[in-house]
Amino acid sequence: MQDNGRWRMSHSTRRQFIGGTGVAGLGALAGCIGGDGNGNGNGNGNGNGNGNGNGNGNGDVQLPDDITMLHFETDDDRRAGISDLGDRFESETGVEFNQIVSQEGDLPTEITAAVAADNLPNVASLPMSVMHSATDAIEQENATAIIESIGEDRFYDNLLDLVRVPDSDEYYGVPLYTWPQLTIYRPEVFDEMGLPEPRTWDDLLEAAEALHDPDNNQFGIFFGTDNDQYATQCFTGFALSNNARVFSEDGDIIFDSDEMVEALEVYGELAQYTPDGAQDAGGIGPAYDNEHVHLYSGNAFSLFFNSLGLDEGEMMTDGVVDSISHEREATYGELVTLNTMTGQSAGGFEASEQWSEFLIGEPENYIDWCHLQVGGFQPVLEEIPEMDEYQDHGIISSWPEELREETLPNAVQRSERFGFRDGEVFPEIGQITANFLIATAVRDVAQGENARTVAEETAEEMRSRIS
């Protein structure tokens, strides 16, 4: 059995993890903000650039005693791994590292409460949708300086575009990790049945129809058909491959376009080959592992699970397609950013920048970060996937070279979102996705409702939500 390389939970000190999560944890910061930049802050806790500065500042800037990072990595192993990185940072800078953990869905509320209480953490890792909803609490100037220090040319261009401030050379946040949506299948089954690689709409339809045998508990395809985030992720690349978009170039809602109607119609046709009922991501494992399906849409983290249980030297055999192709190639991609928060002293800002550059800009540290959740933490720096240190991992080494060095990087490069178009970010997408309007449209069409009627009604609801 191969070592999966995951971190083991160690004893958590206060330095490693502030007891309590969410608002309670953020509340521990209250009264600890407002240092004067000279290391003479009014508290000795975990606030933004306060305390009795440690004298390791940049020039005349004195760093604080500690910094705090808000994130949503609730898994014990990942928290322990982040603590280890924090210890390494402290040994280099003298700045103690703390972490506060929140459930992902609670992040907007957490940040709103922290702004109201004037106790934001120094840095926060945020999904892109949350980042766009919290721009008033994010220090854009620092993000831009960090990206320039690390090197803009080291990042995937499309990921930088996703965090770029409209009509500006600045960035909202620093890309931290990403994961793309993939099409995963069993090549041996496809070869036996003479089926092509499932890349195009026609390929997917052909395979789903051929594989579908419900009387024998065999289903043609597994993808999202419920009104949840998984359905939105599956449908995004499908629709964008047909140039079907939510926003026009001018920001008008065009969900009722002919391209979107066609995408919904064909997606609904594919849905007849899924298992009975509305499908969510929780059904992937049982359906695929028990060989009830041989074709599914899943994010890169699912490759981790598909690789568990392999013997030493055994390679994962699943086929992986990096995008969906119709009028063009596209796939959905999630992006998590590292953000410097507002309200800090000069020393706090400097320490936050140093942490970001330490974590992302130094390959040894960044590879350790990416190894915390193999597949789910896909690198945002183009150089990393081909580095021996990155590939020297029990799970990653079981992936074929083509998957590691071509398929996954290509998927990252082709990642897109409905809220981004031609270099323009439309933050209004947050209101649309938060209310599951796209996912509900997908579910309704999958259940047999008319695609054009659904598209028109959904477009009107979208216009109402963002007006």
Explain what this protein looks like in three dimensions.
By secondary structure, this protein is α/β, with parallel strands linked by helices. The chain folds into two domains: 22-138 and 341-361, D-Maltodextrin-Binding Protein, domain 2; 180-333 and 397-466, Periplasmic binding protein-like II (D-Maltodextrin-Binding Protein, domain 2, 3-Layer(aba) Sandwich), CATH 3.40.190.10. Helices cover 40% and strands 12% of the residues. It has 19 helices and eleven strands. The strands form two sheets. Strands 1, 2, 3, 4, 5, 6, 7, 8 and 9 form a nine-stranded mixed beta sheet that branches. Helix 10 crosses helix 18, helix 13 (346-361) crosses helix 14 and helix 18 packs antiparallel against helix 19 (451-466).
Annotate the secondary structure layout.
Elements: H1 22-27, E1 66-71, H2 76-93, E2 96-101, H3 107-117, E3 123-127, H4 128-133, H5 140-150, H6 157-162, E4 174-185, H7 187-193, H8 201-211, H9 229-240, H10 258-271, H11 284-289, E5 295-299, H12 302-307, E6 319-321, E7 324-325, E8 329-340, H13 346-361, H14 363-370, H15 388-391, H16 401-413, E9 415-416, E10 420-421, E11 424-425, H17 429-434, H18 437-446, H19 451-466
Parallel strand pairs: 1-2, 1-3, 8-9
Antiparallel strand pairs: 3-8, 4-5, 4-6, 4-8, 7-8, 10-11
Helix pairs in contact: 5-13, 9-18, 10-18, 13-14, 18-19
